[in-house]
Every structure is written in structure tokens, then in C-alpha cells.
Specification:
Helix 4 packs antiparallel against helix 6. The chain folds into 3 domains: 15-99, Phosphorylase Kinase, domain 1, CATH 3.30.200; 105-292, Transferase(Phosphotransferase) domain 1 (Transferase(Phosphotransferase), domain 1, Orthogonal Bundle); 295-425, 2-Layer Sandwich (TATA-Binding Protein), CATH 3.30.310. By secondary structure, the chain is an alpha+beta fold. Helices cover 32% and strands 21% of the residues. It is built from 15 helices and 18 strands. Strands 12, 13, 14, 15, 16, 17 and 18 form a 7-stranded mixed beta sheet that branches. A 6-stranded antiparallel beta sheet has the order 1-2-3-4-6-5. It has a 3-stranded antiparallel beta sheet with strand order 7-9-10.
């Protein structure tokens, strides 16, 4: 986020749980404020998005969006997607701790003037790399726009703000043949025509349309579809009425006509985008195909995402409090929202951390589950390599540990529970 205001956070929140020093206010919206922060141990800069629980309690839809955003961001690990380090909860707020990007929003950069086709190509390649990766993970953003794209120290693009995203295993479907979404969402100027038709849409095709609008904006300096009257704007989008400026190259004009095709069934796909002459032009490519990002990177991210890696994690006072329904995120969002983790359960055991982990590993082999371990964290993998559960062991006292199990597949809940026999609920 770009620095726009210098104002201290509320009293008592200058240091979050002894882990992060909270500094300048970077930006604010109706429901959240974003601060610059610093990790006390590593001195690493972070961005801290703080959201009021009181405001959430008055807006069930917002709570649902934030819950979905947390779960989706935990699923994604890609060089062109903003990384969520962790989520902290105090009595009055939820705090997203994310990587800090000095370059600010792509929108702010665009406000200074349109880009050359070469620079636009660089950002577009990185955008498509991120979107392609998301789609490979079953995630559809649905609100792609320059305001949701940030730039790092090297001027590389990173996609953020997954609050309106959906995932393929949501009840109302995802992208792909026969799986159509029906939620009207997104920013008006970037919304695809099939969303306006309210007849169901493919999440992947919708993201491609938004990418086309973004490419047009980067190269033109203005929107392809724009009108102060919302209904007139929607009519232009629905009919695909736009004109390319005279400075657009012939290849770019042709490419945009395929991206902004009003018929989703003939609109260009990402597989065709990455082979298009305009897209591949240039000496250097900034596109990284999702298959080139080793799946183990995602697994490593999951293994580190709660305790930060390292040795067996001991519970401090805040960790214990956070297990209560007043502080635990799953307790805060009490709806049955569709998210990656279908349930979280905790058990108290009297064995050592290593003994519990060994017991889980042995049991996993009996039920034909794969295992990936990092210290006190274990991922259980299905036959296709999908993560069905994550088990983390915390030291509670000298003789007791808490075992936390996050279930990612409903069908495996009873089998995973059986790996931890004679448990007592925490």
C-alpha cells in the first residue's frame, strides 16, 4: 500500500501481541484500516489490515467475504500474489498481517499516465501468471482491477484483495463446464457481460474479461467502457462497444478483441493467451506457468503458515485465549460459509509432541494417506496429492499438548479423527 497519511493506530495497538510494531496509517476504507508494521524479531516490514469486529457483527455479508479471503489467501503461494503471513484476533479487531509492498497500487501508477505496450506487457504477463495459478487451484478472483494490484520494490505486480473470490468447491459452483456462478459481483467498469445477463457464468471466463479491461486501461490511460449513467455503461459492456486508440499496435487491437469478446464460449482462454503473438513478444517473459511452481511450495507454505515453522510451538497466553470462541476466527464467523477448511477440532493429549506426530504418521499409512511433516506440523495428502487435513501440535504444559486438526475434505473427517485415539475434546 502507498503511504498516504501519518496517523497512529488506536491506543494500546501500537504493538500487536509483542510481535509487530504498528506504524503509519497507509490507507483506510469503510471497514478496514491498513498500517505499516514491523516484525519485532526479524525487522521485516509488513502491512497490517485491521478490521473492526463491531462492524463485522453488523454486516454478515462482509464477515463472509473476510472469512473466504482468509481461507483463499492461505491456499495461495505465488510470486505475483500478495502473501498473507498470519491472522491475529484481539477483543475488538481482526488483523491481517501481509507482505508489505512499497510500490503501492498499480492504479496510482496509472494515474500518472498510460504505460508503453512493453511495460503493459510486463504487468499483464505477471497478472496472467497469477490468475492462471489461481484457476489451477480452483480460485476465481471476480474483482480484478488496478486498485487490487500492488507493486513491490522491483516494480513487479502482485494481486491482492480476494474478498469477492470464490472457489471451485463452493456450493454454488465454480468455473468450468457445467459449473456456473450466479453472484452479481465485481466493479461495474470491469464486470463481464455474462454477469449482467444473470444467467450463470464461468468464473475463469469472467477473470479473463477483467484482465482484458485492465490491459486496455494500462495501454490507453482510460477505460474501454465508461459512462456516468450506470445503465448506459452496462449496455455498452453487454454489446461490447469500445474503440481502441490510434496508438495501439495492430497485434494489441486484435488481442483485445479476443479478450473482450462478449461471448464467453468464444472468448480467448488463458492457454491461448500465453501463446498469443502480442503476449509473447519481447526479449524477456514475466509469465510463470502454474505448473512450473512446484506444488511442494504450496505444501511448505501450509506447513509454515500457523506456527511460522521452527521447533514445536509452545502456547503463550494469547494462543490459549485465541482457542476460545470469542477470539477464534471460526467462532467469530459462525455462519456455515464455504471455505477451504470444512472444520477445525482440537484435542488434549498427554504424550510428547514427537509421539503424537509419530502416531499420526503411522495411522495415516494404514488409511493410505500421504504424509508431509515439518517439525510439529503434519499435512495428510490424498491419492491425488490434495491436502485433506493439517495437524499441528502445541505444547500446553510439561505433560500435555494440544492437537489442532484442520479438515480440508469432509469425507476424511472420521478417518483422520481415528488417527488420534482416546482423545478428549479441548
Amino acid at each position: 500500500m502507498a503511504e498516504i497519511e501519518q496517523a497512529p493506530p488506536p491506543a494500546g495497538e501500537r504493538a500487536l501481541f509483542g510481535k509487530y510494531e504498528v506504524g503509519k496509517l497507509l490507507g483506510c476504507g469503510a471497514f478496514a484500516k491498513v498500517y505499516h508494521g514491523r516484525n519485532v524479531q526479524s525487522s521485516q516490514s509488513v502491512a497490517i489490515k485491521s478490521i473492526s469486529k463491531h462492524k463485522l457483527s453488523k454486516s454478515p455479508n462482509l464477515a463472509s467475504h473476510i472469512k473466504r479471503e482468509i481461507e483463499i489467501m492461505r491456499r495461495l503461494s505465488h510470486p505475483n500474489i500478495v502473501k498473507l503471513h498470519e491472522v491475529l484476533a484481539s477483543k475488538s479487531k481482526i488483523h491481517f498481517v501481509m507482505e508489505f509492498l512499497k510500490g503501492g497500487e498499480l492504479f496510482s501508477r496509472l494515474a500518472k499516465g498510460r504505460f508503453s505496450e512493453d511495460l503493459a506487457r510486463r504487468y499483464f504477463q505477471q497478472l496472467i501468471s497469477a490468475v492462471d495459478y489461481c484457476h489451477s487451484r480452483g480460485v476465481f478472483h471476480r474483482d480484478l482491477k488496478p486498485e487490487n494490484m500492488l507493486l513491490d520494490d522491483n516494480g513487479d505486480l502482485k494481486v491482492s484483495d480476494f474478498g469477492l473470490s470464490t472457489i471451485k468447491d463452493d456450493n454454488h459452483g465454480g468455473g468450468g463446464p457445467g459449473l456456473l456462478l450466479h453472484t452479481l459481483c465485481g466493479t461495474p467498469a470491469y464486470v463481464a457481460p455474462e454477469i449482467l445477463a444473470k444467467q450463470g457464468y464461468d468464473g475463469a471466463k469472467v477473470d479473463v474479461w477483467s484482465c482484458g479491461v485492465i490491459l486496455f486501461v494500462m495501454c490507453a490511460g482510460f477505460l474501454p467502457f465508461n459512462d456516468p449513467n450506470l445503465m448506459v455503461l452496462y449496455r455498452k459492456i453487454y454489446k461490447g462497444e469500445f474503440r481502441c486508440p490510434r496508438w495501439f499496435s495492430p497485434d494489441l487491437k486484435r488481442f483485445l478483441s479476443r479478450l473482450l469478446d462478449t461471448a464467453p464460449e468464444t472468448r480467448i482462454t488463458i492457454d491461448d493467451i500465453v501463446r498469443d503473438p502480442w503476449f509473447v513478444k519481447g526479449k524477456k517473459s514475466y509469465y510463470v506457468k502454474h505448473g512450473q511452481i512446484n506444488d511442494s511450495q504450496y505444501d511448505d507454505y501450509l506447513l509454515k503458515s500457523s506456527s511460522g515453522g521452527g521447533a514445536a510451538h509452545s502456547l503463550n497466553a494469547f494462543d490459549l485465549i485465541s482457542f476460545s470462541t470469542g477470539f477464534d476466527l471460526s467462532g467469530l464467523f459462525s455462519d456455515s460459509g464455504n471455505c477451504v477448511a470444512v472444520a477445525t477440532e482440537r484435542f488434549v493429549r498427554s504424550e510428547s509432541t514427537d509421539k503424537v506426530v509419530e502416531m499420526v504418521e503411522e495411522g495415516a499409512k494404514r488409511v493410505e494417506l500421504g504424509v508431509k511433516r515439518k517439525d510439529s506440523v503434519v499435512l495428510l495428502l490424498g491419492k491425488k496429492g490434495e491436502c485433506v487435513a493439517k495437524i499441528e501440535v502445541y505444547r500446553l504444559t510439561e505433560g500435555l499438548v494440544v492437537v489442532e486438526v484442520r479438515f480440508f475434505e469432509e469425507a476424511w473427517k472420521h478417518k483422520v479423527r481415528g488417527l488420534i485415539d482416546d482423545q478428549s475434546s479441548c
